[in-house]
DNA sequence: GCACATAGTGTCGAAAAGGATACTGTCCGC
DNA sequence: GCGGACAGTATCCTTTTCGACACTATGTGC
Protein backbone atom coordinates (compact mmCIF):
# COMPACT_ATOMS: atom_id res chain seq x y z
CA UNK A 1 0.00 0.00 0.00
CA UNK A 2 2.80 2.27 0.88
CA UNK A 3 4.78 2.28 -2.25
CA UNK A 4 3.90 1.23 -5.71
CA UNK A 5 0.58 -0.30 -5.02
CA UNK A 6 -1.56 2.32 -6.57
CA UNK A 7 1.08 4.00 -8.59
CA UNK A 8 -0.38 3.62 -12.01
CA UNK A 9 -1.29 7.17 -12.75
CA UNK A 10 -1.11 6.49 -16.42
CA UNK A 11 -3.96 4.07 -16.48
CA UNK A 12 -7.45 4.33 -17.86
CA UNK A 13 -9.81 7.04 -16.67
CA UNK A 14 -10.52 6.52 -13.05
CA UNK A 15 -6.91 6.49 -12.11
CA UNK A 16 -7.26 9.63 -10.07
CA UNK A 17 -9.95 7.81 -8.16
CA UNK A 18 -7.49 5.09 -7.46
CA UNK A 19 -4.77 7.50 -6.59
CA UNK A 20 -7.00 9.20 -4.08
CA UNK A 21 -7.97 5.89 -2.57
CA UNK A 22 -4.37 4.90 -2.40
CA UNK A 23 -3.77 7.70 0.02
CA UNK A 24 -6.50 6.83 2.47
CA UNK A 25 -6.25 3.14 2.06
CA UNK A 26 -4.30 1.34 4.71
CA UNK A 27 -6.03 -0.20 7.58
CA UNK A 28 -5.80 2.78 9.90
CA UNK A 29 -5.43 5.82 7.75
CA UNK A 30 -9.05 6.68 7.40
CA UNK A 31 -9.62 6.47 11.14
CA UNK A 32 -6.57 8.55 11.86
CA UNK A 33 -7.59 11.12 9.31
CA UNK A 34 -11.04 11.16 10.75
CA UNK A 35 -9.79 11.89 14.23
CA UNK A 36 -7.42 14.53 13.02
CA UNK A 37 -10.30 16.35 11.40
CA UNK A 38 -11.32 17.36 14.89
CA UNK A 39 -7.93 18.78 15.65
CA UNK A 40 -4.31 18.20 16.45
CA UNK A 41 -3.45 15.11 18.40
CA UNK A 42 -0.36 13.69 20.02
CA UNK A 43 0.98 10.25 19.32
CA UNK A 44 -0.40 8.59 22.39
CA UNK A 45 -3.67 10.40 22.08
CA UNK A 46 -4.05 8.87 18.67
CA UNK A 47 -3.08 5.53 20.10
CA UNK A 48 -5.84 5.76 22.60
CA UNK A 49 -8.31 6.81 19.98
CA UNK A 50 -7.44 4.10 17.56
CA UNK A 51 -7.16 1.54 20.31
CA UNK A 52 -6.21 -1.75 18.68
CA UNK A 53 -3.54 -0.32 16.48
CA UNK A 54 -0.04 -1.19 17.55
CA UNK A 55 2.44 1.66 17.90
CA UNK A 56 4.38 0.19 15.03
CA UNK A 57 1.41 0.40 12.75
CA UNK A 58 0.48 3.82 13.95
CA UNK A 59 3.95 5.18 13.25
CA UNK A 60 3.85 3.45 9.95
CA UNK A 61 0.59 4.93 8.79
CA UNK A 62 1.47 8.32 10.16
CA UNK A 63 4.77 8.33 8.32
CA UNK A 64 3.17 7.36 5.06
CA UNK A 65 0.60 10.06 5.34
CA UNK A 66 3.29 12.53 6.22
CA UNK A 67 5.21 11.54 3.11
CA UNK A 68 2.08 11.95 1.09
CA UNK A 69 1.69 15.41 2.50
CA UNK A 70 -1.58 14.71 4.21
CA UNK A 71 -0.46 15.37 7.72
CA UNK A 72 2.09 17.44 9.55
CA UNK A 73 4.36 16.19 12.27
CA UNK A 74 5.56 18.73 14.77
CA UNK A 75 8.21 17.67 17.23
CA UNK A 76 8.79 19.65 20.39
CA UNK A 77 12.32 19.34 21.70
CA UNK A 78 11.16 18.61 25.18
CA UNK A 79 12.32 16.27 27.81
CA UNK A 80 9.35 13.97 27.80
CA UNK A 81 8.97 13.92 24.04
CA UNK A 82 6.03 15.67 22.54
CA UNK A 83 4.94 15.21 18.98
CA UNK A 84 1.85 16.67 17.49
CA UNK A 85 0.08 15.45 14.41
CA UNK A 86 -2.30 17.58 12.45
CA UNK A 87 -3.81 17.72 9.02
CA UNK A 88 -1.96 19.66 6.40
CA UNK A 89 -3.88 21.78 3.96
CA UNK A 90 -3.95 18.88 1.58
CA UNK A 91 -5.17 16.62 4.31
CA UNK A 92 -7.89 19.01 5.22
CA UNK A 93 -8.92 19.18 1.60
CA UNK A 94 -9.87 15.56 1.91
CA UNK A 95 -12.64 16.38 4.30
CA UNK A 96 -15.35 16.16 1.62
CA UNK A 97 -14.11 12.73 0.69
CA UNK A 98 -14.16 11.53 4.24
CA UNK A 99 -17.60 12.98 4.73
CA UNK A 100 -19.02 11.50 1.55
CA UNK A 101 -17.58 8.18 2.52
CA UNK A 102 -19.01 8.40 5.99
CA UNK A 103 -22.42 9.44 4.78
CA UNK A 104 -22.55 6.57 2.37
CA UNK A 105 -21.34 4.16 4.99
CA UNK A 106 -23.86 5.36 7.53
CA UNK A 107 -26.64 5.12 5.01
CA UNK A 108 -25.79 1.82 3.42
CA UNK A 109 -23.91 -0.29 5.83
CA UNK A 110 -25.99 -1.95 8.44
CA UNK A 111 -29.11 -0.59 6.91
CA UNK A 112 -28.25 -2.73 3.98
CA UNK A 113 -27.03 -5.64 5.97
CA UNK A 114 -23.38 -4.88 6.24
CA UNK A 115 -22.03 -5.50 2.74
CA UNK A 116 -18.72 -6.50 4.22
CA UNK A 117 -18.98 -8.20 7.57
CA UNK A 118 -21.36 -10.94 6.59
CA UNK A 119 -19.44 -12.72 3.86
CA UNK A 120 -21.37 -15.75 2.58
CA UNK A 121 -18.24 -17.82 2.28
CA UNK A 122 -17.90 -17.94 6.01
CA UNK A 123 -21.45 -18.96 6.68
CA UNK A 124 -21.63 -21.49 3.86
CA UNK B 1 -9.41 -7.01 1.69
CA UNK B 2 -12.00 -9.53 0.89
CA UNK B 3 -12.93 -10.79 4.25
CA UNK B 4 -12.26 -9.45 7.66
CA UNK B 5 -9.91 -6.72 6.72
CA UNK B 6 -12.18 -3.84 7.39
CA UNK B 7 -14.68 -5.61 9.50
CA UNK B 8 -14.50 -3.56 12.61
CA UNK B 9 -17.83 -1.86 12.47
CA UNK B 10 -17.80 -1.40 16.18
CA UNK B 11 -14.81 0.83 16.27
CA UNK B 12 -14.47 4.50 16.94
CA UNK B 13 -16.30 7.05 14.84
CA UNK B 14 -15.04 6.87 11.33
CA UNK B 15 -15.73 3.21 11.03
CA UNK B 16 -18.34 3.74 8.40
CA UNK B 17 -15.68 5.58 6.47
CA UNK B 18 -13.53 2.54 6.71
CA UNK B 19 -16.34 0.23 5.82
CA UNK B 20 -17.07 2.21 2.72
CA UNK B 21 -13.43 2.21 1.75
CA UNK B 22 -13.28 -1.49 2.33
CA UNK B 23 -15.73 -1.97 -0.48
CA UNK B 24 -13.91 0.02 -3.10
CA UNK B 25 -10.46 -0.85 -1.95
CA UNK B 26 -8.76 -3.60 -3.82
CA UNK B 27 -6.46 -2.79 -6.61
CA UNK B 28 -9.02 -2.92 -9.39
CA UNK B 29 -12.36 -2.24 -7.83
CA UNK B 30 -12.39 1.48 -8.21
CA UNK B 31 -11.48 1.27 -11.87
CA UNK B 32 -14.07 -1.38 -12.52
CA UNK B 33 -16.70 0.59 -10.71
CA UNK B 34 -15.70 3.63 -12.63
CA UNK B 35 -16.14 1.92 -15.96
CA UNK B 36 -19.42 0.40 -14.94
CA UNK B 37 -20.75 3.84 -14.16
CA UNK B 38 -20.95 4.36 -17.90
CA UNK B 39 -22.96 1.24 -18.41
CA UNK B 40 -23.13 -2.52 -18.50
CA UNK B 41 -20.05 -4.35 -19.65
CA UNK B 42 -19.17 -7.90 -20.46
CA UNK B 43 -16.28 -9.75 -18.93
CA UNK B 44 -13.89 -9.36 -21.80
CA UNK B 45 -14.93 -5.79 -22.34
CA UNK B 46 -13.91 -5.07 -18.81
CA UNK B 47 -10.70 -6.94 -19.38
CA UNK B 48 -9.89 -4.74 -22.29
CA UNK B 49 -10.75 -1.63 -20.33
CA UNK B 50 -8.72 -2.53 -17.33
CA UNK B 51 -5.90 -3.83 -19.46
CA UNK B 52 -3.22 -5.08 -17.12
CA UNK B 53 -5.54 -6.96 -14.85
CA UNK B 54 -5.34 -10.70 -15.17
CA UNK B 55 -8.60 -12.58 -15.69
CA UNK B 56 -8.11 -14.21 -12.36
CA UNK B 57 -7.93 -10.89 -10.61
CA UNK B 58 -10.81 -9.52 -12.56
CA UNK B 59 -13.02 -12.44 -11.62
CA UNK B 60 -11.86 -12.07 -8.11
CA UNK B 61 -12.70 -8.42 -7.76
CA UNK B 62 -15.94 -8.84 -9.60
CA UNK B 63 -17.00 -11.64 -7.31
CA UNK B 64 -16.20 -9.68 -4.20
CA UNK B 65 -18.17 -6.74 -5.38
CA UNK B 66 -21.02 -9.00 -6.30
CA UNK B 67 -20.99 -10.43 -2.81
CA UNK B 68 -20.99 -6.95 -1.42
CA UNK B 69 -24.00 -6.16 -3.51
CA UNK B 70 -22.31 -3.48 -5.54
CA UNK B 71 -22.65 -5.11 -8.91
CA UNK B 72 -24.95 -7.49 -10.68
CA UNK B 73 -23.86 -10.45 -12.73
CA UNK B 74 -26.17 -11.59 -15.45
CA UNK B 75 -25.37 -14.82 -17.23
CA UNK B 76 -26.90 -15.62 -20.57
CA UNK B 77 -27.22 -19.32 -21.23
CA UNK B 78 -25.69 -19.04 -24.63
CA UNK B 79 -23.29 -21.13 -26.52
CA UNK B 80 -20.41 -18.71 -26.54
CA UNK B 81 -20.88 -17.64 -22.95
CA UNK B 82 -22.13 -14.16 -22.31
CA UNK B 83 -21.99 -12.51 -18.93
CA UNK B 84 -22.91 -8.96 -18.26
CA UNK B 85 -21.82 -6.91 -15.32
CA UNK B 86 -23.61 -3.82 -14.21
CA UNK B 87 -23.92 -1.67 -11.15
CA UNK B 88 -26.63 -2.55 -8.70
CA UNK B 89 -28.60 0.18 -7.06
CA UNK B 90 -26.17 0.12 -4.18
CA UNK B 91 -23.31 0.31 -6.59
CA UNK B 92 -24.85 3.23 -8.34
CA UNK B 93 -25.34 4.95 -5.03
CA UNK B 94 -21.58 5.08 -4.79
CA UNK B 95 -21.38 7.45 -7.67
CA UNK B 96 -20.97 10.53 -5.47
CA UNK B 97 -18.09 8.84 -3.70
CA UNK B 98 -16.37 7.96 -6.93
CA UNK B 99 -16.92 11.46 -8.21
CA UNK B 100 -15.65 13.15 -5.07
CA UNK B 101 -12.64 10.91 -5.14
CA UNK B 102 -11.98 11.66 -8.77
CA UNK B 103 -12.38 15.37 -8.32
CA UNK B 104 -9.97 15.39 -5.46
CA UNK B 105 -7.54 13.24 -7.34
CA UNK B 106 -7.69 15.40 -10.41
CA UNK B 107 -7.23 18.52 -8.36
CA UNK B 108 -4.50 17.36 -6.04
CA UNK B 109 -2.51 14.68 -7.68
CA UNK B 110 -0.03 15.85 -10.20
CA UNK B 111 -0.88 19.42 -9.39
CA UNK B 112 0.56 18.71 -6.01
CA UNK B 113 3.35 16.55 -7.24
CA UNK B 114 1.85 13.13 -7.10
CA UNK B 115 1.61 12.38 -3.39
CA UNK B 116 2.05 8.71 -4.08
CA UNK B 117 4.22 7.95 -7.06
CA UNK B 118 7.26 9.90 -6.00
CA UNK B 119 8.13 8.22 -2.73
CA UNK B 120 11.31 9.69 -1.24
CA UNK B 121 12.51 6.31 -0.07
CA UNK B 122 13.04 5.19 -3.60
CA UNK B 123 14.96 8.24 -4.70
CA UNK B 124 17.06 8.49 -1.57
C1' DG C 1 -7.70 -30.52 -37.09
C1' DC C 2 -6.40 -25.79 -35.64
C1' DA C 3 -7.02 -21.40 -33.97
C1' DC C 4 -10.15 -18.05 -32.13
C1' DA C 5 -13.54 -16.18 -29.06
C1' DT C 6 -16.39 -16.62 -24.91
C1' DA C 7 -15.87 -16.66 -19.46
C1' DG C 8 -13.64 -18.08 -16.60
C1' DT C 9 -10.58 -21.59 -12.96
C1' DG C 10 -6.34 -23.62 -10.72
C1' DT C 11 -1.85 -23.66 -9.10
C1' DC C 12 2.29 -21.55 -7.78
C1' DG C 13 4.96 -18.19 -5.79
C1' DA C 14 6.57 -13.49 -4.43
C1' DA C 15 5.75 -9.46 -2.05
C1' DA C 16 3.41 -6.52 0.86
C1' DA C 17 0.56 -5.55 4.79
C1' DG C 18 -0.27 -6.16 9.27
C1' DG C 19 0.23 -8.06 14.13
C1' DA C 20 2.83 -9.55 18.54
C1' DT C 21 6.15 -8.64 21.46
C1' DA C 22 10.01 -6.63 23.33
C1' DC C 23 13.06 -2.87 23.58
C1' DT C 24 15.22 2.12 23.43
C1' DG C 25 16.13 6.74 26.28
C1' DT C 26 14.88 10.38 29.38
C1' DC C 27 12.46 12.55 33.01
C1' DC C 28 9.08 12.53 37.02
C1' DG C 29 7.11 10.83 41.25
C1' DC C 30 7.67 7.76 45.05
C1' DG D 1 16.13 2.33 42.27
C1' DC D 2 11.43 1.18 40.46
C1' DG D 3 7.86 2.04 37.66
C1' DG D 4 5.29 5.16 34.89
C1' DA D 5 4.59 8.31 30.76
C1' DC D 6 6.44 9.97 26.43
C1' DA D 7 7.35 8.59 21.27
C1' DG D 8 8.65 5.62 19.08
C1' DT D 9 12.07 1.05 17.06
C1' DA D 10 13.45 -3.58 16.07
C1' DT D 11 12.61 -8.17 15.12
C1' DC D 12 9.93 -11.89 13.91
C1' DC D 13 6.05 -14.00 12.06
C1' DT D 14 1.50 -14.81 9.69
C1' DT D 15 -1.87 -13.45 6.62
C1' DT D 16 -3.41 -11.33 2.56
C1' DT D 17 -2.85 -9.72 -1.91
C1' DC D 18 -1.47 -9.90 -6.36
C1' DG D 19 0.66 -11.52 -10.59
C1' DA D 20 2.24 -15.18 -14.09
C1' DC D 21 0.93 -18.88 -16.40
C1' DA D 22 -1.44 -22.66 -17.89
C1' DC D 23 -5.77 -24.78 -18.34
C1' DT D 24 -11.06 -25.85 -18.73
C1' DA D 25 -15.42 -26.22 -22.05
C1' DT D 26 -18.07 -25.09 -26.12
C1' DG D 27 -19.05 -23.46 -30.66
C1' DT D 28 -17.57 -21.03 -35.04
C1' DG D 29 -14.71 -20.21 -38.95
C1' DC D 30 -11.07 -21.99 -42.19
UniProtKB/TrEMBL annotation, chains A, B:
Residues 15-113 form the HTH hxlR-type domain. InterPro entries: HTH_HxlR (IPR002577), WH-like_DNA-bd_sf (IPR036388), WH_DNA-bd_sf (IPR036390). GO terms for molecular function: DNA binding. Keywords: DNA-binding, Transcription, Transcription regulation. This is Helix-turn-helix transcriptional regulator. The lineage of its organism: Bacteria, Pseudomonadati, Pseudomonadota, Alphaproteobacteria, Hyphomicrobiales.
Amino acid sequence: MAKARHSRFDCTPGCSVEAAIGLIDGKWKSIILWHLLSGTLRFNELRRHVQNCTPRMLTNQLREMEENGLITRKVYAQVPPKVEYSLSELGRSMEPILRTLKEWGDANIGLYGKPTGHDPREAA
